[in-house]
Amino acid sequence: SKHRIAVLPGDGIGPEVMQEAEQVLSLLGEVDPTFQCDVTAFHWNSDYYLEHNRMMPEDGLERLKAFDAILFGAIGDSRVPDHVTVWELIMPIRKKFDQYINYRPVKQLKGIRTPFKDMNQMIDFSIIRENAEGEYSNSGGRLYEGTDRELAIQNTVMTREGIKKVSQFTFEYARSKGLKKVTSATKSNAVIHSMNFWDEVVNEVSSDYPDIEMERIYIDALAAFFVQKPQAFEVVVASNLFGDILSDLGSAVVGGLGVSPSANINPSRDYPSMFEPVHGSAPDIKGKGIANPVAQIWSAALMVEHLGRSDLHTSILQAIEDSIAAGVTTPDLGGKSSTKEVGSAIRNHLKIR
Ligand code: NAI
Ligand code: MG
């Protein structure tokens, strides 16, 4: 049966890179007739907002619920405040569909130079970020506003259930990939309540996985190690804030935003998961035809993997690497090719394989 995919191209370069990813999906169906997608596009973006004064229709989430997965581009436009686009479109999807895992591969593609010299081993690990609670809470507030005594309180909310779920997901992921080690990002030496709780629960979960080593590293040192010895990691589990920062750092270490995909996963599969590049709508290069489509295409590949076809995920990644090896890259990777040229080079390599 066909996989029902909701596509939300969004703003700026979103539709430009999405077009390439959609074409990859339809090509997959030609290369392998057992894999078919039925794609429905929803143009819920800043234009939609300016016309309707909302980012999506009232029954938007209800309509998305029926799909097997959501492929998202990027949103953001100077005519609409960023907190509106983010909090009225992306956040409701993540929350309503209980996408409490944010998965980001930090994988150096062949042919992509990193900021480091003399690297004889490729960087290849993953970050699993808690995506639903933690430091990003609306608990807190400000007191004595405008006075010399003014103060702000921002509470972190971590639940046993929340930490347990993200840890279990991480250890299960490690086991399924044959990994030997999980690294947990912490700061329990200074953030004594929430991070000690994090350590405790991660530790409890780890005892169910005696075959996998668990290491705890303070977030500050971990950030340095991401730069100094990124090959030392297999999978890193982190709270919402720490995971947010680490994943942008990870992305920078393996080639930048143009090549960084992500997945917002609902592991129970009660609701669709959402796949999107890490980058935003890049208004500075909008309409120039030079946006790198790799992050969007790779995000589509993660979606294909989530739908049960890790073989096709691998084929797409290899086709991306082949096109980089052939020198077809956009300016962010030092090349001269356009978005469309990169997209079609990737599709050609997918056909040949
Ligand atoms: P951005 O990721 O859009 O751009 C940062 C820099 O990276 C720019 O110089 C851009 O040209 C470059 N870049 C990004 N993607 C690229 C690609 N595929 N190929 C080549 N170069 C690429 O982040 P920025 O500028 O902070 O935000 C712009 C807008 O995007 C804002 O409105 C922001 O709110 C929104 N945004 C949306 C996100 C989402 O939809 N999930 C995530 C991040 C930002
Ligand atoms: Mg971020």
Automatic annotation (TrEMBL):
Gene3D superfamilies in alphabetical order: Isopropylmalate Dehydrogenase (3.40.718.10)
Catalytically driven reaction(s) = (R)-malate + NAD(+) = pyruvate + CO2 + NADH
Which SUPFAM superfamilies does its entry note? Isocitrate/Isopropylmalate dehydrogenase-like
EC number(s) recorded for this UniProt protein: 1.1.1.83
What is the required cofactor set for this protein?
Mg(2+); Mn(2+)
One of its Pfam families is Iso_dh
Keywords from UniProt, A to Z, are: Lyase, Manganese, Metal-binding, NAD, Oxidoreductase
Record's keyword annotation contains Hydrolase: no
Q: Which domain of life is it from?
A: Bacteria
Residue ranges occupied by any Isopropylmalate dehydrogenase-like domain in the UniProt entry:
4-346
Q: What is this protein called?
A: D-malate dehydrogenase (decarboxylating)
Group of enzyme by EC: oxidoreductase
Q: Answer yes or no on keyword Oxidoreductase.
A: yes
Family in the record: Belongs to the isocitrate and isopropylmalate dehydrogenases family.
Provide the GO MF annotations for this entry.
D-malate dehydrogenase (decarboxylating) (NAD+) activity; tartrate decarboxylase activity; tartrate dehydrogenase activity
InterPro entries in the cross-refs: ICDH/IPMDH, IsoCit/isopropylmalate_DH_CS, IsoPropMal-DH-like_dom, TTC_DH
